[in-house]
Amino acid sequence: MTKKKKRNQYQHYGNLGKVFNFTRDDLNANRQGFITVGQKLGLNMFDRKYIMWIYQFYPFKWWVSKHRKAVKVTGKIRKQYSNRIISSGGNDTDYAMVLEKRQLSIDSGNKVVSFLLPIKQYNAIPELPNVTLYYDPDEHRILSVEPPYDQS
Questions:
Q1: How many CB atoms lie within 10 A of CB 4?
Q2: Which string of DSSP letters, residue by residue, matches 1-28?
Q3: HSE-up of 53 (CA within 13 Å, CB side)?
């Protein structure tokens, strides 16, 4: 039992886990309304494995152990992509730059939550009618994503 828990603690949970950097343990904690230490600190899997021993020191442990809540949103997904070309020209040089914006909005009926995402996360979000998403309201950062989850 201990080996299984240890293995889940440092392995991504599916393709979405790889992209959004969450494990099965992180997802279970998010379902219960909490943010894990690894998610709170934004640690990748390598750091979780080899640097979490710092967590044992008292001042650091006290700071990290302050509980922050994960917020659950289930609803319709809407992806929006926009780009804009900015250019400037001079005598000798021309300069053009493309600014891209990838936004994910979730409409849960009573509120709409939006996030700006990098290209990997934007492309990894499944094209499902409904998705359950857990996020950190303090940093406005997505913690984990899954198809709608029923607690019954």
A1: 9
A2: -HHHHHHHHTSB-HHHHHHHT-BHHHHH
A3: 4
Helical segments of the chain, H only? 2-9, 14-20, 24-31, 37-41, 45-51, 58-64, 119-124
Residue range 36-62: mean pLDDT, rounded: 64
For residue 76, how many C-alpha atoms fall within 13 Å in the half-sphere facing its CB?
5
24's tokens: 């099965």
Tell me the pTM: 0.72
| Strand ranges of the sheet holding 71-89, from the earlier edge strand across to the other edge | 112-116, 94-107, 71-89, 130-136, 141-146
Residue 70 is encoded by which pair of tokens? Answer: 């994960």
Alpha carbon distance 44, 1 (integer Å): 24
Place of tokens 């359950």: 132
59 vs 73: CA distance, rounded Å: 33
